[in-house]
Amino acid sequence: MPNIPHAQRAPIDDVDRAILRILAENARTPNNALAEAVGIAPSTCLARVRALRERGVIRAFRAEIAPAAIGLPLQAMISVRLRAHTREQNESFRATAPDLPGVVAVFHMAGSDDYLLHVALASPDALRDFVVDHLTTHPAVAQTRTNLIFEQIAGRRQLTPEL
């Protein structure tokens, strides 16, 4: 199936949905507890989780770290507009942006801006340096717009499939 992500090809059944719901709530749930909660054998559960990972349904297990707790109290969302919408400029920026210091996430956007960068940095000076040294000097970047984040509030609804 061309242009359809692998994760969307195989159906997700009720057991997979239950596994995903539990892991979205607590990704550290031990396999035995997960298997018991969804009513399957631990070996079956392990195989299902492995299959969900291989299919791209589960992309990662990670810890969410408070940036301020590790000396990065300033967060911002930086909109980036490219000079031209050529494949070369797009690929050039996409290859560079995720590895820039302080980048938490990169979003490729539709609309007036091409990219949105979530950054966490130590100070206003570090933010200025990031924009000046890493974004405005990139040959593909035409314009940036920076918005400070005062507070990050988690959504009340996890990305979990409904039964």
From TrEMBL:
Domain HTH asnC-type: start-end pairs: 12-73
PROSITE patterns per UniProt: HTH_ASNC_2 (PS50956)
Keywords, in A-Z order: DNA-binding, Transcription, Transcription regulation
Pfam families with a match to the protein in the record: AsnC_trans_reg (PF01037), HTH_24 (PF13412)
Gene3D superfamilies: 3.30.70.920, Winged helix-like DNA-binding domain superfamily/Winged helix DNA-binding domain (1.10.10.10)
Protein name per Swiss-Prot or TrEMBL: Lrp/AsnC family transcriptional regulator
Species per Swiss-Prot/TrEMBL record: Kitasatospora nipponensis
